[in-house]
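Exercise 7b. Backbone tokens:
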């Protein structure tokens, strides 16, 4: 009887051992889990998602500031000065053209801020800045430009000297050129503009501003010639891609390529 019992016990032990996982099976499961984890990280890409969120905020902030500045002009017949919207002292970068920085997180955000409760600020401030450029040739500014640097936009100008690559103005997009290189500062730098950009052409006479309208014609017009920058969609965000040659690079725009002549990507244009 005892011998029969021990035989059954040994048989059951062998059965339990045969029903477990082998080392090869465990390795296959681990490899599959690792592959799935890598695929998930590539699809989610938290760094890319954060850059998309930052760029969306920058475009939203500048769009809202443009609306507020244009409303301000309707009541005051001028645009704000540095003392009204900037937290630092303005720098005259060329004759009649001044620059300063906008950020509602700073202690002194200007006298314009009570109208907004708080002025907008770059999400990566103080490493990156919103640059306000305006007409300081007289006591009443008649034009303005607001610049930012988009993380997912590699356009740095024809000579690679820009850090600002997105902007809004009370004029058309061509008035934004040349982009300044004061949107990005060294981590140990101060709050105001640290460099003096090249000569800026005198501003044209004030003209009435109209909102851009989507192109509805079946055949879009030809895009403006170089060096005027062109725009395209990259990772679901409207970005400046630069010259024709730069826009045709495979990683510059989403494919199939569609070019636009304005910074909001509403006016489609075609290659010449």
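Sequence design result:
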């Amino acid at each position: 009887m005892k011998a029969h019992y021990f035989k059954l016990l040994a048989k059951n032990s062998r059965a339990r051992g045969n029903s477990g996982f082998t080392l090869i099976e465990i390795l296959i499961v681990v490899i599959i889990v690792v592959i799935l984890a890598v695929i998930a990280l590539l699809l989610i890409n938290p760094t890319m998602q954060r850059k998309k969120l930052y760029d969306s905020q920058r475009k939203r902030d500048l769009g809202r500031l443009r609306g507020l500045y244009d409303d301000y002009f309707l009541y005051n017949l001028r645009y704000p000065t540095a003392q009204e919207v900037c937290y630092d002292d303005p720098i005259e970068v060329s004759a009649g053209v001044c620059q300063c920085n906008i950020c509602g997180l700073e202690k002194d955000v200007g006298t314009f801020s009570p109208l907004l409760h708080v002025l907008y600020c770059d999400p990566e401030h103080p490493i990156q800045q919103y640059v306000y450029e305006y007409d300081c040739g007289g006591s009443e500014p008649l034009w303005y430009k607001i610049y930012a640097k988009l993380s997912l936009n590699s356009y740095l100008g024809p000579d690679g000297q820009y850090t600002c690559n997105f902007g809004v103005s009370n004029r058309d997009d061509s008035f934004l050129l040349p982009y300044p290189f004061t949107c990005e500062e060294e981590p140990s730098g101060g709050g105001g503009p640290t460099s003096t950009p090249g000569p800026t052409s005198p501003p044209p006479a004030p003209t009435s501003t109209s909102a851009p309208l989507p192109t509805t014609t079946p055949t879009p017009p030809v895009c403006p010639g170089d060096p005027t920058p062109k725009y395209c969609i990259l990772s679901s965000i409207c970005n400046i891609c630069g010259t024709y040659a730069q826009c045709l690079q495979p990683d510059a725009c989403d494919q199939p390529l569609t070019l636009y002549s304005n910074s909001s990507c509403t006016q489609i244009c075609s290659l010449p």
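Instructor comment: The mean pLDDT is 80. The CA atoms of residues 144 and 239 lie 21 Å apart.
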